[in-house]
Write a structure and sequence with these properties.
Layout (H helix, E strand, L loop, with lengths): L1 H28 L7 H34 L4 H12 L1 H16 L5 H34 L2 H13 L14 H11 L15
Helix pairs in contact: 1-2, 1-5, 1-6, 2-3, 2-4, 2-5, 2-6, 2-7, 3-5, 4-5
Bound molecules: fe (ii) ion (2 copies).
Protein name: Hemerythrin
InterPro entries: Hemerythrin-like (IPR012312)
Pfam family, one: Hemerythrin
Amino acid sequence: MEAMRILMDEHQSLAAIIHAIRHMIKEIGAGRLQPDFKLLAAMVHYLDAYPEKRHHPKEDAYLFAPLRARTRDADAVLDKLEAEHADADARIAVLEAAVKHYASGAADGFDSFRTAFDTYASFYRSHMLTEEREVLPLIRKHFTAEDWAHANAGFIIDDPMHGTRAQDDEDFSRVFSKLVASAPAPIGFGAGPYKDD
Ligand SMILES: [Fe+2]
Ligand SMILES: [Fe+2]
């Protein structure tokens, strides 16, 4: 069940970046860390490019649509999750604006970034938990061997953390390692400040 393994891996990478940003916000708030705006912006870009633009479309195409074809039991939860997927651009726009505002030196910059990010983080936690606790069991129950074969193939073809990607794509595994390296210890290796390539 490669599709499940890749899906859980992607949830973990996403949770790790969210955790790293939360940790930085806590340290900045406590006065123990200077903000690295480039790192924050790069992390927001990663959230956009990877989970929002790559992970959700795979869920929609290879898991949710075939599940709908097998049962009506998942309709309500899938309606909700698909609507959340469709809101990706708006969610990221809020975060990008919050990083910009913070970086501009506005007096309320830190507080508004913290609020915007807390909203994003709690949204994602509940989105992923809903997928894992409500949808995956229904997939396991209703998918046929053919559905699994289709889903596995779709997830393997587009597994950007493991090099199966188009040539002009970002190497997400490398980007992820670079973000973690720049993040402060103990979450990252504290090798910052973050530098563009
Ligand atoms: Fe999702
Ligand atoms: Fe997901």
